[in-house]
Specification:
Sortase, Chain: A, eight-stranded mixed barrel, alpha+beta, elongated, single chain, 326 residues, disordered N terminus
Length: 326
């Protein structure tokens, strides 16, 4: 969905080192045409050393309400929205500690705005160091890019939902995502993400996870500015780049029209690099309970068939040699 583009921050800051050495990683070049995106400022990647003190009005909760939907809002959403008007969903990821509410960044916040306090904030910055109740919290909250649409009307939802979170050393927020790059086999048993809107639940299958540069002036892959993939050219560029840079070839098929989900955090406390996990929404007939139901690319299926044929031929040759020796 095309919407106005404002200056945004690229991802939540790394909150603590994970105690591992730097991983040497070079982006591979691509000859593909790069879609044109509006220029953005260099992503903010450092937390304030002394966060501003936020004072909430006594009656701040009185102004929080939710809009009824023809599809009906979930009971959990109704409860959460009484606590914070920015709540837009919930994310859960089996095999990790990720099981949190997700808020929608409110955009530019003028000073002295009810609930947000006396300070002003630029887009995608408030929840870097604020909890759901508006209090200062070093771990922040998991927040969706301020431009994303994730309401009840699926036709209007953004093509690529972008969620940011801190890489906490204690595995809180998006800290446990590091398991994907620490041990590539982690993906074999942790392929799915559950993301609920305020109206219904969705399942996604991970098709790529990669380390990439998070500075606008050092890359042509400004992933943090690719929430709205309105054309097939934009969609294909984003997906192809993610797949080509993925640390593992998952073989998961992705086509124009699929709804995407991108989780973004810092990589190994290195300010320049970001780690992103990219998934697509499950299609009809696919199940998060059974990976064999997931549609795979023709190339992947062919490669698997060839591998199985080679293993079968090798086994038959070994058996034949054993029989001859007898």
């Amino acid at each position: 969905m095309s919407k106005s583009v404002k200056i945004i921050t690229a991802c939540a800051a790394c909150a603590a080192a994970v105690g591992l050495g730097a991983y040497v990683y070079s982006l591979r070049n691509t000859d593909e045409a790069v879609p044109t995106y509006s220029s953005v400022e260099e992503p903010q990647t450092t937390m304030p050393t002394e966060p501003p003190v936020v004072t909430l009005p006594d009656n701040w909760a009185d102004s929080i309400d939710y809009m009824p939907s023809s599809n009906g809002m979930t009971g959990r959403a109704k409860m959460m929205l009484q606590q914070n008007q920015d709540v837009i969903g919930w994310i859960k990821m089996p095999g990790t500690e990720i099981d949190y509410p997700v808020v929608l960044d409110p955009g530019d916040i003028p000073a002295n705005t009810p609930f947000y306090g006396e300070e002003s904030y630029i887009t995608n910055s408030y929840y870097l160091n604020h909890d759901l109740d508006g209090s200062i919290f070093r771990e922040g909250a998991l927040f969706m890019d301020f431009r994303n649409i994730f309401a009840d009307n699926e036709a209007e939802q953004s093509e690529n939902i972008m969620i940011y979170g801190h890489d906490m050393a204690n595995n809180n927020m998006f800290g446990s995502l590091r398991r994907f790059w620490q041990n590539y086999e982690h993906y074999n048993t942790n392929r799915f993400i559950e993301l609920s809107s305020n109206y219904r639940d969705y399942d996604y299958v991970i098709f790529a996870f990669l380390i990439t540069i998070g500075k606008y002036d050092e890359t042509d892959f400004v992933y943090w500015n690719m929430e709205e993939l309105d054309t097939q050219e934009q969609f294909d560029f984003y997906v192809n780049r993610c797949q080509s840079e993925s640390l593992v070839d998952t073989g998961v098929d992705v086509e124009y029209g699929d709804k995407l989900l991108t989780l973004s955090t810092c990589y190994n406390n290195i300010d320049k690099y970001k780690f992103i996990v990219v998934a697509r929404r499950l299609r009809e007939g696919e199940s998060a309970e059974d990976f064999s139901t997931i549609t795979m690319t023709e190339e992947y299926v062919k490669a698997q068939q060839e591998k199985e044929a080679e293993e079968k031929a090798k086994k038959e040759a070994e058996e034949k040699a054993e029989n001859a020796a007898e």
